[in-house]
Specification:
GO terms for molecular function: phosphoglycolate phosphatase activity. One of its GO terms (biological process) is DNA repair. The protein contains ten helices and eight strands. It has about 240 residues and is α/β, with parallel strands linked by helices.
Length: about 240
């Protein structure tokens, strides 16, 4: 394997505990969409998180269209995306917290100067920047090393599409095999796998040991994670495992 030059971090529930806050904010909009299209199903934030973890709101609405067999007019689609973003950013700016142990690892990596570091997210750039700014992680990532599948690409998309990873590699000037991705969800891990980027899985934010073990198994077996960490304190050992693979 080539030497690792760049570490590509997912943001939501990988660096910042933001998914639960975000899904609380967008459940209201998802239910409005379902009601407007004559569907009886209503979601709570946690239910939405289970069904659509790792997807941005645009991807989630596309999944809702497929799951419940309806279509949102394009002008309404864009309006919902903008409304959801405003709600989520407001909530994150008030309540976002870092994933336990992530600050110490970022500081260690930053001081070592051995690797470049970037954030690669499905979500809108303003949301990602609000998250890392609120928890004080923005100092570790130059503005041009924060990438969003919803904002940075000419054609917006969402993980598991690997486009945002391939775009990040191109902008940074590294090959996919010279990077390692850190992901907590099937969609994000699949995007890294499809971009041929070595993967470290992270299952810390899942509530129970049973959920963590289930996700760890999936990340290894389905998404090819070389290592899986349950807490950020394990990161350096996981990185070493990737470099030795």
């Amino acid at each position: 394997m080539p030497a690792i030059k760049e570490i590509l971090f997912d943001c939501d529930n990988t660096l910042v505990l933001s998914e639960e806050l975000a899904f609380e904010a967008c459940a209201e909009l998802a239910n409005e969409i379902l009601e407007k299209n004559g569907k009886e199903k209503r979601y709570t934030g946690p239910e939405l998180l289970v069904d659509f973890v790792g997807q941005n709101f645009r991807g989630m609405m596309t999944s809702l269209e497929k799951k419940f067999d309806f279509q949102i007019p394009e002008k309404d689609f864009d309006e919902y995306v903008n409304r959801e973003l405003g709600k989520v950013v407001e909530k994150l700016e008030k309540k976002a917290q870092p994933c336990e142990g992530s600050m110490e690892v970022l500081e260690q990596l930053h001081k070592s100067k051995k690797y470049g570091m970037a954030v690669v997210s499905s979500f809108a750039l303003s949301r990602v920047e609000a998250s890392i700014r609120k928890v004080g992680q923005d100092k570790y990532f130059p503005h041009d090393h924060v990438f969003s599948a919803a904002t940075s690409l000419e054609k917006p998309t969402s993980k598991p599409d690997p486009a945002i990873y391939l775009h990040a590699c191109k902008v940074i000037g590294v090959k996919p095999g010279e990077c390692v991705a850190v992901e907590d969800s099937r969609s994000g891990a699949t995007a890294a796998k499809n971009a041929k980027i070595p993967l470290i899985g992270y299952v810390g934010p899942y509530e129970s040991k049973e959920q963590q073990d289930k996700m760890a198994k999936m990340l290894r077996e389905e998404c090819g994670a070389i290592a899986v960490m349950y807490h950020w304190r394990e990161f350096m050992d996981c990185l070493k495992k990737v470099e030795q693979s």
